[in-house]
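re: ur question from earlier - yeah i can do the single chain one, its not a big deal. heres the input i used so u can compare w yours
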Amino acid sequence: MTLIALPLAAVGAGSLLPLLLLVVQLAIAYLVYRDAKRRHSRHALAWALGAFFGNLVVWVLYYVVRDEVGR
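and the output i got, formated as tokens:
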């Protein structure tokens, strides 16, 4: 019996990238939430959910308007 070299995706390495992206999204959503809470925003949870589900668009939007968020 001979061993056949399998591509990395066949042995599970392909599942690491989506997991890594999920962790990054969660981390950024947490950072947005924490920053909005520190700025006394009434909508901190909404910003965090938007950052998680809206990705780059909401991240950029938050950091553009974050000075006005807590007012």
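The chain has a mean pLDDT of 81. not sure if urs matches, ping me
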